[in-house]
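TASK: fixed-backbone design
INPUT:
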C-alpha cells in the first residue's frame, strides 16, 4: 500500500500547477506510470478526455491537426523564450534535442521560421524546424519512425519522467531495424532510474535484449 501511494504524488502536484507553476520542478523527484500505445504520433493525445468522438476519420484528422499545432506551440514557445534571453529553471529544448540526436544520430533542431502571412506572429505562427544533415523540414514532415518516437521523448522531458514505470507498446513502430536497435540500446539513458516495459514482435529487437529480460506471451508468432 505504501508503494501505491508513492505514485500519487504526481497527481497532487498536477493539481497545484494551476496556481503555482514552480511546482513542476518536483516532477523530477516523483515516480509515476506512463504508457505510449501503438497509435502514437505527433497528433496523438495522452489524455483520454481530449480524444475526439463522432466520425472516426474526421476525428483523427482534427485530432492530428490540433495535436501537431499544440506541440509546435510548446516547442516554439520554448525556442522563442530562449532566444529572448528569458531565464528558465529548466532547459527543455536542450534535453529534448539531446535525446532526439541520441536516437536519430546526425539530426538536430534548426530553429524556427515564420509562416507566410503573419506580420506579428505568435508562438502558433512559426514552423519548428529540424535538420537531418541534408535538408531542413518542419515537424509535420517527420518520418513515421520519428513520429512514433518524438512524442515519447517530448513527454519524458516535459513531464520530467524519472523513477517511473514506462510502457511502450510496439517499441519498434515504423522504425528501420538499425534505428529500432539503437533506440533499445539508448532507452536506459532516458531519465533516471526508470523501468521500461516494451512490447514487440520483432526478433531484431529481442536480439539486442538479454534473454533474462524477455517475457514471451503464450500464443502468436514472431515476425520480422
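OUTPUT:
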Amino acid at each position: 500500500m505504501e508503494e501505491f501511494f508513492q505514485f500519487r504524488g504526481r497527481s497532487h502536484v498536477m493539481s497545484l500547477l494551476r496556481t503555482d507553476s514552480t511546482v513542476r520542478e518536483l516532477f523530477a523527484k516523483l515516480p509515476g506510470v506512463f504508457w505510449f500505445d501503438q497509435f502514437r504520433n505527433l497528433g496523438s493525445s495522452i489524455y483520454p478526455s481530449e480524444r475526439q468522438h463522432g466520425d472516426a476519420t474526421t476525428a483523427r484528422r482534427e485530432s492530428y491537426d490540433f495535436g501537431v499545432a499544440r506541440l509546435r506551440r510548446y516547442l516554439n514557445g520554448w525556442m522563442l523564450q530562449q532566444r529572448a534571453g528569458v531565464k528558465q529553471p529548466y532547459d527543455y529544448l536542450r534535453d529534448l534535442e539531446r535525446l532526439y540526436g541520441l536516437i536519430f544520430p546526425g539530426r538536430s533542431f534548426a530553429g524556427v521560421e515564420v509562416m507566410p502571412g503573419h506580420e506579428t506572429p505568435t508562438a502558433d505562427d512559426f514552423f519548428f524546424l529540424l535538420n537531418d544533415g541534408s535538408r531542413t523540414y518542419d515537424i509535420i514532415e517527420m518520418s513515421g519512425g520519428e513520429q512514433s518516437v518524438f512524442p515519447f521523448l517530448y513527454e519524458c522531458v516535459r513531464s520530467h519522467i524519472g523513477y517511473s514505470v514506462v510502457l511502450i507498446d510496439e517499441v519498434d513502430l515504423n522504425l528501420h531495424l538499425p534505428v529500432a536497435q539503437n533506440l533499445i540500446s539508448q532507452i536506459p539513458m532516458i531519465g533516471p532510474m526508470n523501468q521500461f516495459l516494451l512490447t514487440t514482435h520483432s526478433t531484431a529487437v529481442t536480439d539486442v535484449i538479454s534473454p533474462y529480460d524477455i517475457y514471451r506471451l503464450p500464443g502468436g508468432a514472431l515476425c520480422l
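COMMENT: The chain has a mean pLDDT of 87.
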